[in-house]
Amino acid sequence: MTHAPFIAVEGPIGAGKTTLATMLSTEFQLPIIKEIVEENPFLDKFYRNMDDWSFQLEMFFLCNRYKQLEDTVMQYIDKGKPVISDYHIYKNLIFSERTLKGTKRDKYRQIYHVLTDDLPKPNVILYIRADLDTLLKRIDKRGRSFEDAMDTAYLQQLIEDYDEAMTSLAIREPSTPIITIDGNKVDFVENKDQFAVIALQVKEHMQ
């Protein structure tokens, strides 16, 4: 059971999750949990050959996120301290359901549930939606070399997978509000008023 506000920011690759989570962390003086991305040694291989490297990639992410959230429980949530993260552990299923097949996907699902079923879940989710053009511009702007080989069809499918996943989460966890942000229209970095609206929505769930 979550004893303190646990805020998660989610969205497809390039949506601005880490940026928004960092801004909210500063705004409310909250500790922030950032997922490990560039440290994953399989990313470059994965974007060049998804079939060969997907299981290694997904297992690396799952184990690292599990460890991060386990530490988060001990350091913050169990002590009644609010925390924000730039991901929801559920994202592991969003990605793995697309990248894994057959017995590898079955094995991954089993491991996922063993590791995560007793972890605390966020009590508010910020979901940044954005179309392909917006995501591609943001991905290009941040200049990660391993993302150069990313298949745009994969990214478009991921956008659709996220929409379905958020709908599923809303049904499975109706007590957890999902605040949807239109990433095509809302620029929380350059527009202070738009960021203030988001911050106010988050504050309402921190009472």
TrEMBL record:
Record keywords, A-Z: ATP-binding, Kinase, Nucleotide-binding, Transferase
UniProt: ATP binding residues? 11-19, 138-142
Q: Which GO terms describe its molecular function?
A: ATP binding; deoxynucleoside kinase activity
Instruction: Give the positions the UniProt entry annotates as the active site.
Output: 86
**Record domain Deoxynucleoside kinase: where:** 7-206
Q: Which Pfam families match?
A: dNK
- Name the InterPro entries for this protein: DCK/DGK, Deoxyribonucleoside_kinase, DNK_dom, P-loop_NTPase
Q: Record's GO cellular component, any one?
A: cytoplasm
Q: Which CDD domains match?
A: dNK
Q: Which family does it belong to?
A: Belongs to the DCK/DGK family.
The protein in question is named: Deoxyguanosine kinase
